[in-house]
C-alpha cells in the first residue's frame, strides 16, 4: 500500500490501533442477468457483498445461502465460495474487499481479521456472516459513499477511505450486536448463561473501575438490553450488584485486617474515599470505622 500524507490531527487517531482497515481491491458494482453465475473463488481478504436488487444463491464452504434484496454477506478469508443469480430480472450487487494492516510493519494480519469477525459477531460466525438491512440503512448509505469516493480519486481520498471503513465496521458491529440480542430473546437458558458470565466478570473485576458498558461488552450486549436482562435475572441492577460485592469485601477487610479505610476503599474499586464512606454508610447504616469498632467489640 502506498504511503500518504495525513493531517497532524488524524495521526493519533490512525496510530491508536495496532491494525487499521484497508481495502485491498477497489470496491466494484456489478449487474448480472439471470443466466450468470460466478465460479468457485477463494480470497485472502474479506469479501463483503451487498445485494441491491434481485436474488441469488451462494455456496460458501459446505453451506448454501439464499440472498435477496438488501442482504449483506461477509465472507471470511480463505473460504471457497460461488454465486449463482436465480431471479429472472438479474441481480445488482456491490462487492468490497478489505483486510487489516499492521501499522508497525505494514503487513497484512490474518489473526486480526479473524479476531475482528468473532468479536463483532459475539459468537462463532463460521465461514460467513449474513445481515438483513433496509435500503436506507446507514451501512448501505456508507457503502455507496465508499464506492463513490473510490471512483473520484480526489485529494485526501485515501484518508477518507480509512475513516469510512472504520465507520463501516462500527455500524456492522452494532447491527450484529442487535441481531445477536434478537436471537437470544425468549431463550431463557442462553440469557441465564450470559448473565452468569456477567456475574463472574463482576466478581473477577470488582476492584477495578468498571462500568455497565464494560460488563455488557463482555457478554456482547448493548448496555440497555444487558441492564434489563440482568435485573430480570438477579433482581438487582448491575451497578447495585457490583456495589454489594464491593461492600461485602470491604466488610471482610475491615473485620480481618488492619488496613486503613482509604486503602480498603481503593482495593475494592473506589477511587474516592469519601464516596466509599457514603456508599458504605448507605448500605450498612454505619461508617466503615463504626463497623470496624463494632466488629471488634463483638469478637472481644
From TrEMBL:
Lineage top rank: taxon: Bacteria
Entry-linked InterPro entries: AraC-bd, Homeodomain-like_sf, HTH-like, HTH_AraC, HTH_AraC-typ_CS, RmlC-like_jellyroll, Tscrpt_reg_AraC-type_HTH
SMART domains xref list: HTH_ARAC
MF-aspect GO terms: DNA-binding transcription factor activity; sequence-specific DNA binding
CDD domains membership: cupin_RmlC-like (cd02208)
Keywords annotated in UniProt: DNA-binding, Transcription, Transcription regulation
Residues in HTH araC/xylS-type domain copies: 196-294
The keyword DNA-binding is annotated on this UniProt entry: yes
Pfam families, per the entry: AraC_binding, HTH_18
Protein name in the entry: Melibiose operon regulatory protein
Source organism (scientific name): Ruminiclostridium hungatei
Designated gene of the protein: melR
Amino acid at each position: 500500500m502506498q504511503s500518504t500524507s495525513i493531517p497532524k490531527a488524524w495521526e493519533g487517531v490512525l496510530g491508536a490501533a495496532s491494525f487499521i482497515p484497508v481495502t485491498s481491491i477497489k470496491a466494484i458494482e456489478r449487474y448480472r442477468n439471470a443466466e450468470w453465475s460466478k465460479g468457485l473463488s477463494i480470497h485472502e481478504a474479506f469479501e463483503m457483498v451487498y445485494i441491491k436488487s434481485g436474488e441469488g444463491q451462494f455456496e460458501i464452504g459446505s453451506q448454501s445461502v439464499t440472498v435477496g434484496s438488501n442482504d449483506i454477506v461477509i465472507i471470511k478469508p480463505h473460504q471457497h465460495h460461488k454465486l449463482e443469480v436465480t431471479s429472472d430480472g438479474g441481480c445488482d450487487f456491490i462487492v468490497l474487499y478489505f483486510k487489516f494492516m499492521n501499522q508497525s510493519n505494514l503487513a497484512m494480519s490474518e489473526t486480526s481479521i479473524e479476531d475482528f469477525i468473532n468479536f463483532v459477531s459475539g459468537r462463532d460466525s463460521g465461514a460467513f456472516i449474513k445481515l438483513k438491512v433496509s435500503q436506507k440503512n446507514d451501512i448501505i448509505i456508507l457503502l455507496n459513499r465508499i464506492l463513490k469516493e473510490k471512483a473520484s480519486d480526489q485529494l485526501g481520498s485515501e484518508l477518507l477511505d480509512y475513516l469510512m471503513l472504520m465507520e463501516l465496521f462500527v455500524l456492522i458491529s452494532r447491527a450484529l450486536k442487535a441481531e445477536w440480542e434478537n436471537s437470544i430473546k425468549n431463550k431463557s437458558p442462553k440469557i441465564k448463561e450470559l448473565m452468569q458470565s456477567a456475574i463472574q466478570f463482576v466478581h473477577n473485576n470488582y476492584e477495578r473501575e468498571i462500568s455497565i458498558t464494560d460488563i455488557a461488552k463482555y457478554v456482547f450486549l448493548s448496555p440497555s438490553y444487558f441492564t434489563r436482562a440482568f435485573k430480570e435475572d438477579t433482581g438487582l441492577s448491575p451497578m447495585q450488584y457490583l456495589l454489594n460485592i464491593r461492600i461485602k469485601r470491604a466488610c471482610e477487610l475491615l473485620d480481618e485486617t488492619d488496613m486503613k479505610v482509604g486503602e480498603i476503599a481503593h482495593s475494592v474499586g473506589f477511587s474516592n474515599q469519601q464516596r466509599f464512606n457514603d456508599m458504605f454508610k448507605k448500605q450498612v447504616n454505619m461508617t466503615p470505622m463504626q463497623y470496624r469498632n463494632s466488629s471488634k467489640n463483638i469478637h472481644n
